Amino acid sequence: MNGEKMAGNDYNFAMIEKKWQERWKEQQLFKADDNDTSREKFYCLTMYPYPSGVLHMGHVINYTLGDVIVRYKLLRGYNVLSPMGWDSFGLPAENAARKQAKAALERGEEPIHPDRFTEDNIAHMTSQMERAGWGYDWSRELATSRPNYYRWTQWLFLLFYQNGLAEKKVAPVNWCDSCETVLANEQVLGDGTCERCGTVVVQHDLNQWFFKMSSYAQKLLDGHAELHGHWPEKVIKMQEEWIGRSEGAKVDFTVTETGESLPIFTTRPDTLWGVTFMSLAPEHPLIEKLVKGTEQEEKVLAAVRKMRAQSTSSRLTAEVEKEGVWTGFHVTNPVNGEQVPLWVANFALMTYGTGAVMSVPAHDQRDFEFARKYNLPVRVVIQRDDATLVVEEMTEAYEDPGAMTGSGPFSGRLNTEAMGDIIKWLKAEKHGEGTINYKLRDWLLSRQRYWGAPIPIIYCEKCGEVPVPMEQLPVELPMDVEFKEGGGNPLASCEKFVNTSCPQCGSAATRETDTMDTFVDSSWYFLRYCSPEFMEAPFDPKLVHKWMPVDLYIGGIEHATMHLIYCRFFTQVLHDLGYLEFTEPAKKLFCQGMVCKTAYYCENCKWLPEAKVTGGSKSEDTIIGGICAKCGGKVRSEMTKISKSKLNIVDPDAMMDRYGADCVRLYMLSDAPPDQQQVWSDARMQGSWRFLNRLWDVVTGAVEIIQGEQQEIPDNLDTESKALRQKTHASILKITDAIEGGFRFNTAISSVMELLNKVRSAKAVHTGVMREAVESMLILMAPIAPHFAEELWETLGHTTSIFQAAWPRADKSVAMGDEIEIPVQVNGKIKARLIVAPNLSKEELEKLALEEEAVQAAIQGCEIKKVIAVPGRIVNIAVK
RNA sequence: GCCGAAGUGGCGGAAUGGCAUACGCGCGGGUUUCAAAAACCCGUGAGGUUCACCUCGUGUGGGUUCGAAUCCCACCUUCGGCACCA
């Protein structure tokens, strides 16, 4: 059972782990008590998984961390809420159905429905989770694809709709050809590819559903104040950048020829007098309107089409050559009445500001490059103080502070100082006003796919867009729909679903066939866990009040600008609508590191599994100088995140078969702090295994000695017993600190190892001291290796679960010991060591240090300048 | 380009102003064994050496301090995020 590498007397993890998993289930160890008011609550949430069917190492580190903290908090006496559920809507289930639809039909079978696919996966992953020993209150389990959950997702959509926070509008949106759906801004990566599948996203103007998240930009930023110190600064920073606040002014230009208003946003109103042209985004609606019927219409529209065809991605990278076309029109600058040409430029973005940019080539690098390319004038209105800018000699824009020139009433003033006055002046002169702009856009939530929560809207010819009455929810997904590859959304072709009657007037109407982004589902699941059976609303306010906010949220940093923004947005909206008393969903956020392992790459055969690398020599866990078994080419190695595509995956099931769940859990936490990258190493896994077996041997070996009548620990212990007792108490202190001060389980584990080494080398210690050491080790290890600790706890004669024991309390004076070693330095070099009482005074330390023979020798013939004695730490003698 | 984090033995890492390299891995030696594995014990930063001793040593160069891996300045390297956002 234990695998070929294990010796015969290794502990039998398979039997033990099963036994305790069953006991915990019987005892309902992880049942959170809604009615308990005596214990403090602790809501520990780990990001729920998409039920792909199998656990991967990312899940293992995430859920192990959560479970260790849950068990630690149980030992500290908290009423812990540790729920688990499934992010079970989404493309893979639907794609699987489509993919095998044809083959199934040929066999005369129905393809596997996404619902069955999903539920089967959930069943399998649940058993994997139980096997890993992760403790959840399964009575609160939820799956977002079940009607009793998505009914409330729909309810929340309607709530947002009723409050003007959900709307359908035409906008330029991201379309992924491979996923056959639109995507939210947050789901398009920096390089313009789909976050899910890597396909380059294209832009279309489409009529889509949005949540008005942009109106929460400031609130989302303000909320960070509460999160500083409790969320990783990196995540807060990423959100700040994503929200992208910038202060500036809105200034009203007008189209000279037509008198139409054309507002712009600028952060540099101090350069308004240097405007020499205006740039419009290619998507700007004004372009078509203006050029219609003019002689340049064809030329302008052709250029605009070309610019729009460039994907978002290439438009967004700095290397792309600036391109533009003159519309034939001009705009009038309100500050000086000047008329400057109106251009269309590929670097102007419709999705930021007003889609129109005032161009000041002397003081903006983009405008400068554009002006030089199209021979547009450059005018200096900010002078540097160390030299004089001369337009003809400039090779780049001058963007630093300086004195304003040729700027009407502001000439002569330092631009940075005048900024506030300029904005006041603009307002007084009715040319514009100070304003704040954000990069954050509205959240595009509709998806042209089947496997999601249907958007509960009906379209009626008479009444228009009509929300489904809340009491008619859920709008259920029809089960008998047809899946076929490239067949579009099966909902749209399901007449039974589409055709309905108007809830207002009763006449024939059609349903919205788009479903919601799965990030909508996950924006409120933590609320549902508080009252999973509640049937009057998405959550029971009383229970949400009891459990929320989440005390600790654990998950990957990849959600920094997706899920973690969305769920904050939902929480703030629900707060503003009076449903929640708090504005932030999670008090503390912890992001675990990636699990990495060596991957191998051959120029010809691409990524290789380790088994396909031959020759070379193995150093640690990496083959160096190996050869590709397929083509004989050289293989290079790279330490990288475990992933299917790089063929360096580790199968958690196989590891648990071989070493047991406790050992895998222990290993995951042993090597590095959990927020750092973890390096997977089979060799080090063996180290964890050895440690568990040593501990097992020590405890089982100690049973006989300590099982007799319990002995009080006397005051006059022998030296060795005293030393062990001191180590025990010092370890408890150190381990508790390591966990409380940032979940540094790696140092906690090494402290237990040190204590174990001490116990092992102890010859004849007092049995009370031995019992204290051994029991402390077991409780300290219980969160990490729970089955193992339970079994030994029982072996020691305890009849209740170790998780009903209390976390050990350290006596600080015992932990300190009676004597400590104090190094004595001369000019910073150690010359001697003193063994003294820990509380020995500064004066006595100084005296003892100077009396030391080695110190005397070292300071012979020198003049003592200063003696620094730090009680309990060090003595340093500075000499000349 | 901008912002941030990090850089310590052969390796993962510990020490956050006071004994650098805890703990573990690996490696070397030993015990046990017919043998191997496992287990156990000892050793393991580099260089020197008069071997119970000395010198050097935490990316590089400076600085502050009695004392710096830790604080400050500059630089190098690696990783991460952002990047035509007006």
Description:
The protein has 880 residues and is of the alpha+beta class. It has 6 domains: 37-143 and 522-591, Rossmann fold (3-Layer(aba) Sandwich), CATH 3.40.50; 152-212 and 442-519, no CATH class; 246-437, Valyl/Leucyl/Isoleucyl-tRNA synthetase, editing domain (Isoleucyl-tRNA Synthetase, domain 2, Alpha-Beta Complex), CATH 3.90.740.10; 595-670, Rubrerythrin, domain 2; 688-815, Orthogonal Bundle (Isoleucyl-tRNA Synthetase, Domain 1); 819-879, Roll (Ubiquitin-like (UB roll)). Helices cover 36% and strands 20% of the residues. It contains 28 helices and 37 strands. The strands form 11 sheets. Strands 8, 9, 10, 11, 12, 13 and 16 form a 7-stranded mixed β-sheet that branches. α19 crosses α20 (661-670), α22 (719-740) packs parallel to α24 (767-781) and α24 (767-781) runs antiparallel to α25. The longest helix is centred in the C-terminal third of the chain and has 26 residues, at 682-707. It is globular, with a radius of gyration of 34 Å. It starts with 12 loop residues before the first helix and ends with a strand. Residues 1-8 have low confidence and may be disordered. It binds one RNA strand of 86 nucleotides through α8, β9, β13, α12 and β33.
